[in-house]
From TrEMBL:
UniProt organism field: Mycolicibacterium diernhoferi
Keyword Nucleotide-binding: no
PROSITE patterns linked to this entry: RECOMBINASES_1, RECOMBINASES_3
Superkingdom in the source lineage: Bacteria
Family matches, as PANTHER family: DNA-INVERTASE FROM LAMBDOID PROPHAGE (PTHR30461), SERINE RECOMBINASE PINE-RELATED (PTHR30461:SF2)
Name this protein carries in UniProt: Resolvase
SMART domains, sorted: Resolvase
Amino acid sequence: MRYVGIPGKRRSKGVAPPDTAVVYLRVSTSEQAASGLGIEAQRATARVYADRKGLRIIEEFCDEGISAKNLKGRPGALAALDAVRSKRAAGLLVAKMDRLSRSVVDGASLMESARREGWALHFADLDIDTSTPAGEMAANIIISGSQYERRLISQRTRDALAAKRARGERLGAVPRLPDAVVARILAERREGRTFQAIADGLTADRISTARGRSKWFSATVRAITVSQHVGQRRAAA
C-alpha cells in the first residue's frame, strides 16, 4: 500500500479562492492499485465534475491499495483534509462518496468540520456540494443509508452462519481428496470391488478421508463415485 501526493502551489493561511479544490482518490486493493484502472476512472470523474462546476484542481492526493473504515489509516485522506483546513483550497473533491467515508460518524464529522471551517465537500458521482443546505442533507441521508446496508449484510451473514452451526453443517471451504485417491477409488470400482472392500483397503493403507479421518465407510466411497460420475456427465453435456 502507498500514499501518493501530487502537490500544487502552497498558499499561506487565509482565504482560498472559492473555485479551488483538491482531489482525493482511493483504491482499496493492491490489484486495483497495480492496474491503475480504479484510480484513472475516479480521476476522470472528478475532472468532469470540476469542469462542469468551474472548479480548479490545484492538488491531488491518493491512497493506493489501502482499505480503511475510518480516516486514521489513510495518509492521503489526512493530507487532503490538511490542504483545505490550511486554506490552500476551498473544497475537497472525491469521485465517489465511499472513497472518502463509509462511516456515519466520520461522514457527519467531516461535514460538520467543513461547515465550521468554511470549506466544501464535493461528491462527483452524486453531484453533491455540502456547502449548500440541500447538499449537506442529501450527503447525510446517503451516508446513513450506506452504513445501514453494510450492517444489514453483516447481520444476515452472522445469522446464516449461526443457522448452519445449529444444523451441524461444516463452515468454510469444502475439503477435497487428492486426485490420486479419487483415481484409486474409481479404478477399484471399475474392477468390480464393492464399496465396503474399497473402504477397508483405504483404511488398511492408512489413507485419510477428506475430513482427515482414518476410517473409511462404504457410504463415503459410494458418495465419491456417484459425485464423480455426475460431474463427468455434466462435463460431457
